[in-house]
Design brief:
single chain; alpha+beta; 4-stranded antiparallel beta sheet; 4 strands; globular; binds zinc ion
Length: 109
Amino acid sequence: MSAAKRPYWLPEGCPPWCLRVPEHSNDDHPDDRTHAGEDASVTLTAADPLDLDGEAEEMRLYLLQHYREREPLIWLGRNETNQGGHLTLDEAEELAGELRRLVKIARDE
Ligand SMILES: [Zn+2]
């Protein structure tokens, strides 16, 4: 997006990973001035369903950053609910490392 077309509240533009570049606008509510990036999901075959709607249970992850925050966070949560939490990038790396460590132990690697 060229500087002329950027919302006034976003003078420096989006981080390179933001997928909302064309959606940001001057009239976005301040709470909604959030960059959002790649998402991913993992189907949870062993999890009890949160509700019995027949949909597969998923762990969902995506990058987000409010325009006034200094770095992105990663949302990690169940399905489309608010059951989950935000991780800093350092916390996400730590979590990934701990997951790898536990998988190796479980597989006796
Ligand atoms: Zn953005």
